[in-house]
Amino acid sequence: MSRARRTPRQADIARVAGVSQATVSVVLGGNRTGVRLSERTRLRVLEAAERLGYVPDPVATRLASARNNLLGVYTFTPAFPIDVADSYYPILAGIEAEAAALGQDLIMFTGSSAAGDHTRIRRTRLADGCLFLGRHVPVDAVGELLASGFPIVYIGRRTELDGTIPYVGGDYVSASAEVVARLVGAGHRHLRYLREPDEAPSSDDRERGVRTAAADAGLPVDGLVVRTDGSDLTAATLAAWRADGVTALVVEETDTGAVFHATQRALRAAGISVPDDVSLAVLGRPPGDPPGPEISGFEVPRREMGRAAVRLLASLLDPGLGDPAAHRLLTCPPVAGETISAVRP
């Protein structure tokens, strides 16, 4: 039984050519660092490589080149979502589609915590540039990448690091204001906006849109915004709000959907009908596919955000592709839904 032939390595080429392995590495790598070598030495190395049937490792070759045609994707979750209802799924689908259209490959990185990890994030340098997803920015690690000139693009508006982080996000301010304007147009004057206690630019933008539209319409602002994790939303809470004249609830969309689910449970427990008794809107889309009438709100253009982020990153890597704005907000189309109705006299 014949033994399988071992794949030749650079050390074998060095031995046959009578040079050091470092010299072989320089020659086969195209001498990008400008090391002084005689033409005779270079040809001897190439002839030895050809005679031995040496085939370079494609991964190693790409990592050694000036451009790898690899785009990184880093998300601060332990694993990438596989549920199509997950809010990250359409973003990832958009990233994949646009990367394929541009002839780029993807390499994916995950972090085990929202705070991130310097070592993990440094690994993104395997790629030419990297896309980041997540509600919170690991400021020190991302600042280190920016300071080194490594191209990155965040998906979602970012204000950290003095606004120097390139991003593609949704225009939640305008979309949220439009939802409130719709409610005002239906005769609603007393609202409650339910926002989760977590801090993030996307949450701040939604609240700003709500407050701006409420102020423009002259609505009462006392008690307008309620910070809650959902645990204190009970049938008694909603009954008290109704007694105070509240006719519409507006809920923040988040990754967890905790407050939306808590609101749904409290409405059922209180026997409050939507939209007959109370109108309901979500600033975004409700998580999953809740039963009942379609919830009014707006679409977050996640798939297009992924595609636009890839295009922005590609332009940072190759200015010849154009120079789009480093900070871009996409329009969030309204969803009429069936849960906003006119206030009954």
Automatic annotation (TrEMBL):
Sorted keywords for this record are: DNA-binding, Repressor, Transcription, Transcription regulation
This protein's name = LacI family DNA-binding transcriptional regulator
Q: What range(s) does the HTH lacI-type domain occupy? A: 8-65
User: Gene3D superfamilies, alphabetically?
Assistant: 3.40.50.2300, lambda repressor-like DNA-binding domains
Residue ranges spanning the membrane: these are: none
**CDD domains according to UniProt:** HTH_LacI (cd01392), PBP1_LacI_sugar_binding-like (cd06267)
Instruction: List the molecular function annotations (GO) for this entry.
Output: DNA binding
SUPFAM superfamilies given for it? lambda repressor-like DNA-binding domains (SSF47413), Periplasmic binding protein-like I (SSF53822)
Q: Which PROSITE patterns match?
A: HTH_LACI_2
Question: Per the UniProt entry, what species is this protein from, by scientific name?
Answer: Amycolatopsis heterodermiae
Xref: Pfam families: LacI (PF00356), Peripla_BP_3 (PF13377)
What the entry lists under InterPro entries is as follows: HTH_LacI, LacI/GalR-like_sensor, Lambda_DNA-bd_dom_sf, Peripla_BP_I
